[in-house]
Amino acid sequence: MSREEVIRQLEKEKLLLVTRGIYDEELLKLAEAMQAGGIRIFEITYNQKDPDTLETTSRNMKMLKERFGDSLTLGTGTVLTVEQVRNAKECGAQFIVSPSFDEEVVRETLRLDMMAVPGCMTPTEIVQADKAGADFIKLFPAGTLGFKYCRDIMAPLNHVRYLATVGINEETFRQYLELGFAAAGVSSYLVDKNLRKQGNWVELTERAKRLVAIAQEYTG
Hints:
By secondary structure, the chain is of the alpha/beta class. It has one domain: Aldolase class I (TIM Barrel, Alpha-Beta Barrel), CATH 3.20.20.70. The protein has helices at about 5-15, 25-35, 55-70, 80-90, 105-110, 125-130, 140-145, 145-155, 170-180, 195-200, 200-215; strands spanning about 15-20, 40-45, 75, 95, 115, 120, 135-140, 160-165, 185. Helix 2 (about 25-35) crosses helix 11 and helix 9 (about 170-180) runs parallel beside helix 11. The protein is globular and about 45 Å long.
């Protein structure tokens, strides 16, 4: 899938799953639950504290690719360096998400034909990231900044596509879409630690289905 195709997919589906610290068999079970719920775009994050994070992420990306093939669109998150961008590409990533804006990271992402989603908080960062060619701006942390901040930022800078993160659930997802966000990255609501510990994959699937249903209301 080309970068442009991934962009169109995210615009249409409006949801990507963000996983952090979930690997191997548990990640497979989560992926199966999300697939059953209609979630098709997965972000596997790097752990900057882990010296083996490149290998761990690569192994799990390849595992998901082997199990699900083209039915999952895979990307990497918490990407801070050009080295990590290249590692992501080698293990099959189709998009890159960062908590911050780094022009070198964005440009390398685009050079490798992957969708670029840097994290920004201020108007200056947003404009700089847009000029660098970012495909979406992850307004980070949107859930902490609050709806008023998001609305005030987006009013004058309404020419870019925004991704919301942090604290996404059914209620807030709908509110972000109403504000004009193009999509949202969902983590805790869909990877609930207690539900995973209980093995309650059915409830996670049902949560995914409810979010997908909301997204479909806003698909043009």
